Amino acid sequence: MTEATLPIAIPDVIRTEHLVKRFGAVTALRDVSMHLVKGEVLGLVGDNGAGKSTLIKILTGFMQPGGGEISVNGEEVKLRSVSYARSLGIETVYQDLALVNELSVYHNVFLNRELRYSPLPFLNNRKMREQARDHLMKMGVNIPSVDLEVAKLSGGQRQSIAIARAVYTDAKILLLDEPLAAMGAKEATLILELIHNLKAMGEVSIIMIAHNYAQVLEICDRVNLLQHGTITFDKPVAETSLDELNELVMREYRVGTTKTSMKS
Amino acid sequence: MAETILSNAPMPETELPPEPVRKGFWSRLGRIFLRQREASILVVAIVLVIYFQLSSSNFLTQFNILTLFEFISATAIIAAGEVMLLICGEIDISVGQVFALAPFIMYLVNQAGFSLWVGIVAALLVSSVVGLLNGIVTVWFKIPSLITTLGTQFLLNGITLTISMGEPVLTPSEGQINQIMGVNPYSEIVWAIAVMLVVQVILSFTRWGKHTVATGGNQLGASEAGVNINRVKMGNFMLTSVLAGLAGILEAFRITSISPLAGGTTIMFAAVAGAVIGGTALSGGIGTVVGAFLGVLALSILNDGFTLLGVSAYTYDIILGAAILIAMILNVRLRIWREAGRQ
Ligand SMILES: Nc1ncnc2c1ncn2[C@@H]1O[C@H](COP(=O)(O)OP(=O)(O)OP(=O)(O)O)[C@@H](O)[C@H]1O
Ligand SMILES: [Mg+2]
């Protein structure tokens, strides 16, 4: 037990070294070295256009970096495609993209992994319904019924189901790009609770992009600030505060304005 | 990992009560009918039957019912395939020409000395190749299926006219085949009902069906989940073509002759109209085969009843057009209400 508390005994599930990504003249990522510890929730914050989404897209195999290395579970890998990243247990949840409105909740949970009365080709709806219900219960996702069409659920409920599904399909590393964006307080609480439950289970590691520092402090274990294409701040949440985070961003803003005023 | 833990998890006991009723009686009734589109179309069909029977006592005679079956069968078979395609977000307007081509393939193979069964199988195979072609062009070259199948429609019409040399032929006969395939006055409607049931089961109770809905409902999300949307689309193009070919063959047996001019847009539009009136959304993701069958049924009753009453065909077209427009508006409203139904 004592060993587990030593930093060296906690493995990194993701580690990047000097990642670079350019879009023509725009350098989205200049030099990003970061890591994700097994079982933790890492909050990724930064201004609009800082490169947060770009980093997530590289980690999910959707984009290739222009330079740098990525290791997953200690092994250097080239995340050449989304399906390859997925085979390594990396899954990204995009709001509203993931679910099929016209299908029931449980058909969504089991999309493309439907259970059947094999060898017959017919769907075992009873079993899927039960397992989906149990799984969502276990995750603490609260919906009226798994029989409902997803179109009838709120944004928060749908986001919860998408996250729960990703976990159900054996995702070990969840990448959440602004899971709390465009959500009311009640909805956001749903997602925060779900992430909290996931953390308690300790099976998955999560990178979460967010703009609301209070929420980051509430749910994350550690926070990384991405500025001008590089990580400029990396602290456990316990060692920082809302004031400090706000101050960092304000400082950037002040520096930014003085720079521009100096140029002109 | 999750699966093993889950099977031991306790069953939840709490199921929230259904959402409380807020709206007035009529709007509630309206919504129930919209949700149960099949039921409402059935009601419309029954009302039409009662009306026509009251206005002309000839409506519910055995002779007229058989006429009605003739109206319904081929269109309903084509509609069953078309619904699957519409649900996955595509459309096939070349079905009328597959309908004309298939019996000629059967005839020619039979003329070449093969059994009529072989001819039927060959005709269905050719139909499936047409569907595959439609699918490949649409999926690989990313051409809207409306355009793809507009092209194949002309292509197939040309081929049919060429191989038939523009002349109709007599449908060959062989043993019991003719009875089974359409000479018996009840065989075609039995085929149509059987096709409807099989395709509805595929849609509701198989992976293929769920993937079809997912492909039309959220193409990006479905492929993100690993659904092979290209395969789903190509498969449904093939299914639609094969069913159109089957419908053409059945008609050839019933009429006992094969005409190169049998195909066309009329039967295709009737099938699509039936599907739309039966609740299929042209935007994909929504629809049922039973609904399409009932849509075709209602349109056929209307058509047949008007003929009996001596109402002009123009009037029928006016009503058909209005019915399609109303159905489309209802489909769109339905979608909006569903979205608005979120808590
Ligand atoms: N596909 C692309 N092509 C060209 N430029 C891009 C592309 N994707 C991102 N960029 C640019 O890279 C920079 C970083 O974008 P990114 O989306 O990663 O920012 P972000 O941190 O996610 O911002 P936000 O908080 O607004 O979501 C921006 O300047 C953006 O314009
Ligand atoms: Mg972003």
Question: Could you explain how this protein is built, in words?
Answer:
The complex is a heterodimer of chains A (264) and B (343). Chain A is 37% helix and 25% strand. Chain A has 264 residues and is an alpha/beta fold. Chain A has a domain at 12-95 and 171-263: 3-Layer(aba) Sandwich (Rossmann fold). In chain A, helix 6 (155-168) packs parallel to helix 7. The radius of gyration of chain A is 20 Å and the shape is globular. With 343 residues, chain B is mainly α. Chain B has one domain: ABC transporter involved in vitamin B12 uptake, BtuC. Chain B has a two-stranded antiparallel ribbon. The longest helix of chain B is centred in the C-terminal third of the chain and has 28 residues, at 313-340. Classes of the chains: A alpha/beta (264), B mainly alpha (343). The structure holds adenosine-5'-triphosphate and magnesium ion (MG). Adenosine-5'-triphosphate binds next to strand 2 and helix 2 of chain A.
**Main sheet summary of chain B:** 2 strands, antiparallel
Strand content of chain A is: 15-25%
CATH topology of chain B: ABC transporter involved in vitamin B12 uptake, BtuC
Compute the number of strand runs of chain A: 10
| N-to-C span of chain B | 33 Å
Tell me the overall shape of chain B: globular
Please give the CATH architecture of the domain at 12-95 and 171-263 in chain A: 3-Layer(aba) Sandwich
What percent strand of chain B? under 5%
Low-confidence stretches of chain A: 1-5, 259-264
| Top CATH class of chain B | Mainly Alpha
CATH topology value of the domain at 12-95 and 171-263 in chain A: Rossmann fold
CATH architecture of chain B: Orthogonal Bundle
- Amino- and carboxy-terminal Cα gap of chain A: 59 Å
Name of the level-1 CATH class of the domain at 12-95 and 171-263 in chain A: Alpha Beta
